[in-house]
């Protein structure tokens, strides 16, 4: 197993906490990248006590803010990253926007993750293998990347569409990034953790109470949901595997859109243009 630096986003709760605890227990250096560092500080202390690993760091990272992502990356001072677990995610009940004006679910789950990963690429694969693990969802099968993917408004916002769309986009990003880093010491894969009993489930119950009661027995604990990501991050078996989608510790098929190389490249190009506009705006304001 790689003994270098691990970064885990959304590391202070649910599945992120379970991943962090397991990785920290292996004695490697870990950065918990969390939006609310005050809330996460207690979790960090708890994990250090449980694992005896004093190399668990806590850094502030808000994927809803270009400035925060830039600050996080700059704060690493070029440290080499061995494993990046893009775990943080959100599903907003109502329409809201990021600091930079994007719809929040797509902005955090996809655009923020895309930007963080790309800005960290220079820190990867320099002296050893780097693994990137992205978190998708079984709901990606219901996703669709239409012409207005980035242009949701309050009138047309539907949380049960925005979330699957963002998770399909993550899979397409995984496929395209895997193609782009071929020949480098970097691999990128995606996981579907299943339906995990986290804060997202607590805040967003099923459509009605009876459905919630029916599905509850199928919901995994955060520890079970984290197992596939932990395996991909640490097992030598997957050191050379890239571009895959994994569920329950096995590689599975992907939606047709992910197999469409042209569609994946188009989404990458559109994201690149969008991000260039956001970053350019920050530069003009002297914020970056």
Task: Supply database-style keywords.
about 290 residues; Rossmann fold; 8 strands; globular; disordered C terminus
Description:
With 288 residues, the protein is of the alpha/beta class. The chain has one domain: Rossmann fold (3-Layer(aba) Sandwich). The protein is built from ten helices and eight strands. The longest helix has 24 residues. The radius of gyration is 18 Å and the shape is globular. The N and C termini lie far apart (36 Å). The C terminus is likely disordered.
What's the quick description here?
The protein has helices at residues 14-24, 37-51, 66-75, 104-120, 159-180, 199-203, 209-215, 222-234, 256-259, 261-284; strands spanning 5-9, 30-34, 56-60, 81-86, 130-135, 186-192, 245-247, 250-251. By secondary structure, it is of the alpha/beta class.
Give the ordered list of helices and strands. EHEHEHEHEHEHHHEEHH
Secondary-structure content class: alpha/beta
Strand tally, please?
8
In angstroms, what separates the terminal alpha carbons?
A: 36 Å
List the helices and strands and how they pair.
Elements: E1 5-9, H1 14-24, E2 30-34, H2 37-51, E3 56-60, H3 66-75, E4 81-86, H4 104-120, E5 130-135, H5 159-180, E6 186-192, H6 199-203, H7 209-215, H8 222-234, E7 245-247, E8 250-251, H9 256-259, H10 261-284
Parallel strand pairs: 1-2, 1-4, 2-3, 4-5, 5-6, 6-7
Antiparallel strand pairs: 7-8
